[in-house]
Structure formats: structure tokens, C-alpha cells
Amino acid sequence: MSHNVQETYLGWRELIHMKDCSRPSWTVDIREDEVYRSSYGGYRGPVERHSCPNEECEHGGSCLRTTVRVVCLSCHVAHVITGESGSIRSSTTETTGYGEAPRKVGGLFLWPGEPWPWFDSGPREWLVSRKKPQRLHEEDLTGSISEGRGPRGGRTYSAAALPSPTGPYGIGSRIRWERAQDGFTSITAAAKWIASQGRKNGASPDHEGGKA
After folding, report:
1. 45: left (phi > 0), else alpha (psi -120 to 50), else beta?
2. pLDDT the model gives residue 204
């Protein structure tokens, strides 16, 4: 399952420790069990095949349940997360984007998203902030950058700036933006344009390779 750059960083709920936890850290374990479906939530003898109008439905009387147990051995808080037919995908922070250090460009911090598998390696989307928080939140954002391809296959970059609940750009996504510009020929140019939007109170400065 792939995520766009907003889904990579935003919308996740952080598991919390007790307030007096002296050495916060997590021990994480996972297990998978076959469990049986019934109206009582447990095994009560033979269970008939799940009834579904779809002839190709493969639902049966049992399912695979995935359980994740997250425990802090310091404050002794325990979180148990369960779900039906869960899946596990092991990769690296380079593959997920999350966990990689942000890149400082044009005085801003660029937080990478997932790489595009159908192009060469490397992220193709970034969230942009002016500061470098330990964990990125919506209120930290000042813009976003995305990479595309021009008519001849060359790299081109688009940028959006200034989060706004009623912004005209990014409709349908988690974050909407007040301003957007495309046609940049480098990430640095896109980042500098985003940085300038917070300084010019609506002005749209000239920039390298950009167009309205």
C-alpha cells in the first residue's frame, strides 16, 4: 500500500506513554491467529459459509486476525491493536519516506515522501516547513513540492504554499493551499518560491523556470 506525501506524515495518531514515564520506549510484537466468525464473536461450533450475493466472494467462517502489542517497560502502558486480515510489509525508511531526515533547501526543510517505483529511485513529493520539529504536524507546514515530467521527459517541479482551509489548490486532499505555481526547473527554485510567499504578502515574484 502506497501513500502520498501527506498520508506519509499526517493523520497518524501517536501512541502515548504515562505522564511520569522516565524512559519512554516501545517493545513491539505482532501475531496472527485464525479466528471464527459468529454472531456472538467467538467459536460456537460449525459456522456456515458467509452469505454474500457476489458469486466470487471468498469469505468463509473464519478469518485471519492480526494483533499488534505495543508495551513500554518503563511506565508499563500497553496498547493492543487488532484487525481482520491484516498484512505486513517490511521495508526501509528510504522506501516509506517517513524516518528519513528532511533536506534543507532554500532555508526550508523538505520532508520526503515515497519514491515512485516506475521512475528512478528517490522521492517525488515533499512537504515543506520552516522549522525542523521532531515530528511533523499540519501546523508546521508552509508548502509542498512535487516532481513531474515535461513534454520531453525532463524533470519539472510544482509548488504550493500557505495552507488555507478554503484555498483554491489541493481540493480533495488533506491540505489545501492559497497559492501554487508550476514549471520550476529545480527543487531549489521551487523551495525559494515557497519561502518568498511568506514574505511578500501576496506578491508573485519572478523565479527560475516558473510560470503561473
Report:
1. left
2. 40
DSSP single-letter state for residue 197: H
| CA max distance for the chain | 73
Distance, CA of 206 to CA of 169 (rounded, Å):
20
Q: Is the pLDDT of residue 136 over 50?
A: yes
DSSP string, 96-109: HSTTSPPEEETTEE
In whole angstroms, give the CA distance from residue 38 to residue 70.
Answer: 28
**CA–CA separation, 82 vs 101, rounded Å?**
31
For the residues of 18-30, what is the DSSP string, one character each?
-TT-SS---EEEE
Euclidean distance between CA atoms 47 and 40, whole angstroms: 11
For residues 144 and 170, give the distance between their C-alpha atoms in angstroms, rounded to a whole number: 10
What is the enclosing helix (H) or strand (E) of 144? strand 141-149
Reported pTM: 0.77
